[in-house]
Write a structure and sequence with these properties.
The complex is a heterodimer. Chain A is built from 6 helices and 8 strands. Chain A is α+β, with helices and mostly antiparallel strands. Classes of the chains: A alpha+beta, B mainly alpha. Chains A and B meet through helix 1, helix 3 and helix 4 of A and helix 1, helix 2, helix 3, helix 4 and helix 5 of B.
Chain lengths: ~270, ~190
């Protein structure tokens, strides 16, 4: 069946359907690595197959799981594909414009290979972490069942950068820092530093949570607690959070990993900027 | 930069933004293609929980390794669906292997028979009208192996067994069927 010097045309089609045996698959992949013409044929087959699938609305849990794992959390737009969601885009509330964060260069393998020619089309100077989330935006996310989240330092190569950014923010003259005291013994459990409308939380002395749980930061003092972000399970010590203007009292609770729309778990620490 | 900005971006632009760790770009990609990834995973796996896991894996893999998507080789949607299909098939095969082990160990009394009614399988697929018309143009000889292998997650050997046809015949019919399907979809105004 293997004829290395000929183009395995039948196998290319079966390969595109993921229907080859493992050894045949390896043989085709070896051929594809040195035969651009056959790689193009596979690409065409895949494009044809892609046209067969009709969208169905995924359950909300899917995006919540993706957001929890990637930190791409607070964006309600994905909910537009759900049947119960409004067809119009999410409320374009007066999002607090965050100050430009110093965007560290991504690792070389993550840099776009093409020239950055698309910058003029709106993707220009995208801050590495989008975090500014106002109370209004958070409320919009809550209304549609989303999770007000944050970008967390969830990549192995990033926490050091984030820790440096947090440390730099705390070192600024007049920096607003809230120390959160643990509910059980009053120790200094975490610090939150505001940097304009964004900020950082540093978990100084909190245990790693069991699988399926996460810390979540809340703003207190209004009609109801407002989520400032899902922080992760405690293994990463620094995360970015949104700090709307006027935030004073803060509470940290344990919640399901995807976050909650209102606090449901134990309050593990509290503090304020005052 | 709000999500309104992202809505105006091309898929390729969004993928590049993901490489810059832009979470809203990932969300916009999910908004555009999450429904297709979900639908295909669910179709192949026939299990919502497994489909959720595959969807999560596909989008998290894009977040972790966006450079694996090469816009020179096709659309982002096509790439995402190929990822979803490959992972779903892997799950199906491992579930099958587990079931066969269980059967060998005598935990199950009987083996499910081959697909008894391929036509019913095809008809129960929730296909867009233009897709169904294109598939119907193929005729069962070329349509059925594609449907069983692609949506059923079967290997071509299993497909041949289910259809009672030689393996080589099934392979060549899959190839000729895909070619016709492409032309039929183009005739329907869909450019794959």
């Amino acid at each position: 069946m293997s004829e290395p010097e000929e183009h395995p045309v039948d196998e290319l089609a079966v390969y595109a359907l993921d229907a080859l045996d493992p050894d045949e698959r390896l043989a085709v992949e070896a051929h594809l690595a040195r035969c651009p013409a056959c790689a193009t044929i596979v690409d065409e087959h895949r494009a044809t197959l892609a046209a067969l699938t009709t969208d169905e609305p995924p359950p909300p849990a899917v995006w919540q799981r993706i957001a929890a794992q990637t930190g791409a959390g607070d964006v309600p737009t994905p909910l537009a594909v759900m049947p119960s969601a409004p067809t119009t885009p999410a409320v374009p509330g007066p999002t607090v414009p965050g100050p430009p964060q110093p965007p560290p260069a991504p690792p070389s393998h993550l840099r776009p290979r093409r020239s950055r020619g698309s910058q003029g089309s709106g993707g220009s100077a995208a801050p590495r972490r989008w975090v500014a989330i106002s109370g209004v935006a958070a409320a919009a996310a809550l209304v549609v069942g989303g999770v007000a989240g944050v970008a967390i330092a969830n990549r192995d190569d990033e926490p050091a950068n984030l820790a440096e950014l947090a440390a730099a923010a705390m070192d600024q003259p007049g920096a607003a820092v809230a120390t959160l005291a643990a509910s059980d013994d009053g120790r200094d459990a975490a610090r939150v530093v505001a940097d304009g409308s964004t900020g950082y939380i540093v978990l100084d002395d909190l245990p790693t949570l069991p699988a399926g749980q996460a810390y979540q930061l809340w703003r207190l003092g209004g009609d109801a607690p407002v989520s400032l972000g899902v922080i992760g399970d405690g293994r990463q010590h620094v995360a970015t959070v949104g700090i709307p203007a006027g935030t004073d009292m803060l509470a940290l609770s344990t919640e399901p990993a995807a976050g909650s729309v209102a606090p449901t778990g134990a309050i593990v620490a509290t503090g304020s900027f005052a | 930069m709000g999500s309104a900005t992202h809505e105006g971006m091309s898929d390729t632009g969004l993928a590049m933004a993901v490489a810059r760790r832009d979470g809203r770009a990932l969300a916009e990609i999910y908004r555009r293609h999450g429904g297709a990834v979900w639908a295909l995973s669910r179709r192949v796996l026939r299990d919502d929980h497994l489909a959720e896991e595959v969807c999560q894996t596909v989008f998290c893999a894009l977040w972790e390794q966006p450079e694996r998507f090469d816009p020179e080789r096709g659309s982002l949607r096509s790439w995402l669906l190929a990822q979803a299909h490959g992972r779903s098939v892997d799950v199906v095969r491992s579930e099958e292997a587990r079931r066969r082990r269980d059967e060998r160990d005598g935990r199950y009394g009987s083996t499910p028979g081959p697909e008894s009614d391929v036509e019913a399988t095809v008809q129960e697929l929730d296909l867009a009208a233009h897709v169904r018309r294109a598939l119907d143009l193929l005729g069962p000889d070329e349509r059925d192996p594609i449907v069983l292998a692609y949506f059923g997650g079967r290997s071509y050997r299993d497909t041949a067994l289910a259809l009672g046809q030689p393996e080589g015949t099934v392979k060549s019919r899959i190839r000729s069927g895909l070619g016709k399907l492409r032309r039929a979809l183009e005739a329907e105004g869909v450019t794959p």
